Amino acid sequence: MLPRFVGRLGLADAVTTANAALGFVAVVVAFSDVELAARLVLLGAIADGLDGVVARYVGGSNVGPYLDSLADVATFCVAPAVLVYAAVDATWPVSFDPLTAQTVATAVVPALFVSMGVVRLGMYTAYDAGDEFTEGAPTTLAATIISASVLCGVHEPTVLLAGTAAFVYLMVSRIRYPDLLARDALLMGVVHALAVLVPYQFGRTFPWAILTLGIAYLVAGPLFYWRGGWVLTKLYGNA
Questions:
Q1: Is 46 contained in some domain?
Q2: Quick check: 90 and 32 in contact, CB under 8 A?
Q3: Are the C-beta atoms of residues 9 and 55 closer than 8 Å to each other?
Q4: What is the pLDDT of residue 96?
Q5: Residue 235's pLDDT is what?
Q6: Could you give the angle at which helices 205-220 and 182-197 cross, rounded to 10 degrees?
Q7: Which residue among 1, 56, 159, 171 sits deepest, i.e. has the most Cβ atoms within 10 Å of its Cβ?
Q8: Quick one: average pLDDT of 74-99?
């Protein structure tokens, strides 16, 4: 007897499922090679964008939106949280006997990141999936910035935990982020691919480029991209 999903899922769903698998592998790798784990999360971000392209040209399924959010939990919530935990633990070894403030921060901040990421994805699926914008910083953006930071060599515990804590709020904030236009999503995809394939070339140029673009969109997107990109989207169709 064939599995239940045969005939119900398509190629786009296969890409989404592969994204979830990348999240798991990133978690496994994080404790032995944190920068390789960061590369796997960025590869997952490429897969996350690719499944939408495949669905547009080949066709999607009714299950697609739910699979997408579930895969995002693995790759853009759990994996980045473990990434931060592993990177911080390398400098501040976690010890529950005695319990220290550093241990509490190392464990609690990533846990809150996962929790708020799950809430954010649930809210997105329920309220924002059909809109041209979303409320709260996207989990993909949060995971990209965290992973790019690690890949840039930023392993300072206080910096990683502070950035992760900021996303705990930003992911469930009411700040509106417009959908990326196709040209911008393509640019980010190319830079992501280069950061995954050749992260250490030219003084880690490509990870720094991702980090710069990600922070620029995080800070300026709701103010400037919204007014320009959203108007273009209205005129020429959602990319």
A1: yes
A2: no
A3: no
A4: 77
A5: 35
A6: 150
A7: 171
A8: 91
